[in-house]
Amino acid sequence: MILKFLLALSLLMASAQAQSLKVLSFNIYRKPEPFGFGGSHAARRVKRLCLELAKSDYDVVLLQEAWLAKDRKRLDNCGFPFVVNIGTKVSSRHPGRAARASREQNLESGLLILSRHKIVDRFRYEYKLDGSLWSIFKDGEKLASKAAYAAKIETHGKTIWFINTHLAANYCNTFPRIGCNSYEALRESQLEELSYVVSKLDGAIVMGGDFNMGPSPVSRDMAWLRFDDYFPGFAQADHDPARNSTSSILNNFNFYDMGKIDHLFGSSHLRLSQGALAFTQLMNIEGRSLHLSDHFGWQSVIHFE
Hints:
Layout: H1 2-18, E1 20-30, H2 42-54, E2 60-66, H3 69-75, E3 82-84, E4 112-115, E5 118-126, E6 147-155, E7 158-166, H4 184-199, E8 205-210, H5 222-225, H6 227-230, E9 262-266, E10 270-278, E11 283-285, E12 288-290, E13 297-304
Parallel strand pairs: 1-2, 7-8
Antiparallel strand pairs: 1-13, 2-4, 3-4, 5-6, 6-7, 8-9, 10-13, 11-12
């Protein structure tokens, strides 16, 4: 009788696991540092991140700001057998940036999707609008190819789309925004484009990444207040927006608090639970006490309804 009970319990646990996926969204803060100067020890942090991901139990990882090809190559090999890494096609905005071997070069979208489950479809969508030419040396938004990555993942007889994105950043650290470039209108335009892309997909969808907007007054845009109109039925895991700050002054790379600007949303086909910060601890990285990024990660468990 006890043996039958344990067998039934193990089958029940296996079935529960089959109906859920653990997902991480993480902006890794990998800016180019010429000749190793820059103070963020980026290459060392990427190396440590790869080790941490390899031993993690995440099913899917959405990464942003993986700006350099050499780091992307390392992250391609962190224990996840399936990777989405799609370069740009030749475009009028970046005519010299044709993808080599269909993979991103330096300073494109900075996006990656890592998965332990088979990817059966994928695409990349590049936003039509980007930053100001007059601010190219101040914020670099014009240099990047801000985009969305999409991966259709097959697991346990089900398929689910994962969308990873990084919208234009907000270069204001106080509220109200005075004498700084918030790019609020640009973010709204990108969000509107993203909503069109998502509306064309079938079935269950998880959408995540660095949206550079959220509930904090510093990062709260009109587009954020209308988010439900753009993505009806999408919801996050329950969390405390005051305490769960992903761009936090508690991080040793930050000097101000933007609040929770990294998110994971699920469509109405899904339920999200166990929303929590990730990689909040300081780590000994080759003798230095550092966080892995200037962001904390955001994780959730995705349940099929």
